[in-house]
Amino acid sequence: MFRVIVLLAVLGVAHCVVWGWDYSGPDSDDSGPDSGDSGPDSDDSGSGPSNEHDHGFGWWGPDHGHGEGCGHHGVHNQNLTWHSEYDRRFDRLSAYIMRADRFAKEFCNSFTPSDVQELHGNSFYKLTYPMPQLDPKDITVKIKHRVLYMYARQSDSATSPIYVDVRILPDTLKMSDAAWKYEQDHLSIVIPYEPVLRTKIMKTCVEVNADVKDVPKASPLIYKFGEED
Asked: 199 CB contacts (<8 Å, ≥6 apart)?
């Protein structure tokens, strides 16, 4: 009888350990975008809160784990699980960002003109591209979320050079107010800052806008275009 009681006790502890620690760590097979998953918007169970009782943490937060009812062992293992899941999210997010930056760098090395100038002004962000002998009607500029696309080529010449750029923009810009102008053989794209510089604001979670914005040609009546304050 004594042996039976000891065996049941051992099985109970093993149950707590197994169910309280159910994560293999940040090196598991879905820890980043190169693992074969479909990206941050994939339909895995870790994409967000699963019900109204998870308090915004989803399966990877304080409501996760099966250690309830297992006493000290359950609490200890559940704490380890929380920490590991947060590490896992850190690893995955950093992997996504690095993958996007690597993709942008590959495009830049292959296609982006080497003489693009970038200016962080007092009230705006500005990109300038030397582009001789272009008609403004042959210039396309658009933005999706934080990604800029610029394409220009003389439509009446099959031998004219192609100017193209795709880049990730800073997250401090007001994309809805972006505009461009072409003069003196230079294209300038100007985007004002979203917050006023040197002003303390409440930091909120990122809003993702999947709409494509066709950036308009600037009106001189609206913009003091590209001039510093």
From this structure: none
